[in-house]
Amino acid sequence: MNKLLLAALVTGALSTPVFAADYTIMAPAAPGGGWDQTARTMQEALQGEGISGNVQVTNVPGAGGTIGLAQFATQENANPDALIVGGYVMVGAILTNMSPVTLDNVTPIARLTGEAVGIVVPAASDIQTIDDLVAKLKEDTGAVAWAGGSAGGVDHITAGLIAKAIGVDPTQVNYIAYSGGGEALAAILGGQVTVGISGISEFASQIQAGELRLLAVSTDTRVDGFDAPTLQEAGVDVAVQNWRMVAAAPGITDEQKAAITADVKAMAESATWQTALETKGWVDTYLDGEAFDAQLDADITATESILKDIGLVQ
């Protein structure tokens, strides 16, 4: 009887999925934006593919992710189950906010995605093309109100680069920063601003529904599924791609970092994740290890130079 019971227990154990870890992923922004979408898509893929048995997502908005970053670095030290999403926006926000906590205070794991920034207006706007927007900016730069993500982030940088490329003062750009994509979207649809600028996936539903008009995309190639030129095609010499990453807590061991990286890589290669990339219009830019560390350092240096160039950092 005891042998039968033991055999049953062993069989049951072998048939039960073995999960690597239960993760909590912080999206350092309000619900609805790119980081929130990234964290919740990670949650879906990690759980759906059996990589993790339980994944929770938390939102800590504010200051381009630097409030969440500071909380994460302080409260999750040496916790191998804690992850935070970030990216280009956070790099810029750290510099513009002169944040005492930086990406040096966490453990970067991998770059996950790239995405075009979209420039949109409400369907009822008299701005029909990017040329119309350029004309308004040249006429009165400050009269054009932009709604986008955090100050110093990729949306803000792109707006500044557009201004510089068309020969107007980028420091005069009237940019209104919102902590989440939902808030910015409400302002655009409500006519509180002239133009919206953010990751194209944040506008996709409204573009497809005809509520927003997509004027242009920021990348050097068009985005499949969207009928809009690149900025360069429209005569504005700007090419920018937003990117997003995931990091782990500070103070983890090399073995823990390797295990987390293995889980994230398995997620990034999974059918669930790859389907989500296609659906959301995200580009697979996965990179980890020393190559990612080197690329991150290069991106931080380049972003600081751009921010100085457009007057957002002294």
From TrEMBL:
Question: Could you tell me which SUPFAM superfamilies the record lists for this protein?
Answer: Periplasmic binding protein-like II
CDD domains (alphabetical): PBP2_Bug_TTT
Entry keyword annotation includes Signal: yes
Signal peptide range equals 1-20
User: Which UniProt key words apply to this protein?
Assistant: Signal
The UniProt similarity line reads: Belongs to the UPF0065 (bug) family.
Which named protein is this? Tripartite tricarboxylate transporter substrate binding protein
